[in-house]
């Protein structure tokens, strides 16, 4: 059973999510929070598996709340829900430890898929939206110099896969591109994550763009 905490300052949105999600056999809405401050308190008390986190809220926004939640020893997975695909706060939330993001107007099927993917320990990446989001951020921020020490530890294949992940390719797509098995791709990705101290694919994308491995607009 996936234990869910819904965080949004709009009551009607919380009610809508709850009414739909509680119809799922593998999901349980254990609580609701009206802002980031409330979310941190509720998460500590209820210990949800996945937090559906709004971004723009009073008192404490979703970025700060996400950072506090993911810093905990047994942190829940955080799925950001946003109205705009280029919300300026979303990138900050990803850097704070969120496992992905989804537009609020996404289909019900897409929402369920996102929750299950995030709960399984994967990251939710929409290649087109993620790329536009990070490229928008990168155009407003001076790129960081590559972390030579960490990058030097990657094998040529791991570095190649990092670039493909950053371009939004899935494991099956990477496997087909490199003419290897999906199991091989997963093995390389796991090793690459460990060497770069990354949580998941979202943060691999962020790392690649931040460190200049992928140049915005050049894919």
Q: What is this entry, summarized?
A:
The modification 4-aspartylphosphate is found at residue 54. The protein is an alpha/beta fold and 219 residues long.
Please describe what this structure looks like:
InterPro entries: CheY-like_superfamily, NreC/VraR/RcsB-like_REC, Sig_transdc_resp-reg_C-effctor, Sig_transdc_resp-reg_receiver, Tscrpt_reg_LuxR_C, WalR-like. Keywords: DNA-binding, Phosphoprotein, Transcription, Transcription regulation. Residues 147-212 form the HTH luxR-type domain. The modification 4-aspartylphosphate is found at residue 54. The chain is an alpha/beta fold. It folds into two domains: 2-124, Rossmann fold, CATH 3.40.50; 143-210, Winged helix-like DNA-binding domain superfamily/Winged helix DNA-binding domain (Arc Repressor Mutant, subunit A, Orthogonal Bundle), CATH 1.10.10. It is 51% helix and 13% strand. The chain contains eleven helices and five strands. A five-stranded parallel sheet has the order 2-1-3-4-5, with helices on both faces. It is globular.
Specify the biggest β-sheet: 5 strands, parallel
Fourth-tier CATH superfamily name of the largest domain? Response regulator
Low-confidence stretches: 142-146
How do the SSEs run, as a string of H and E? Answer: EHEHEHEHEHHHHHHH
Gyration radius (Cα, Å) is 17 Å
Strand content: 5-15%
**Computed structural class:** alpha/beta
Number of helices: 11
Domain count: the total is 2
* Widest β-sheet, arrangement of strands: 2-1-3-4-5
Coarse shape? globular
Helix content: 40-55%
Mean of residue pLDDT values: 83
In CATH, the architecture of the largest domain is 3-Layer(aba) Sandwich
CATH top level label of the largest domain: Alpha Beta
The third-level CATH topology of the largest domain is Rossmann fold
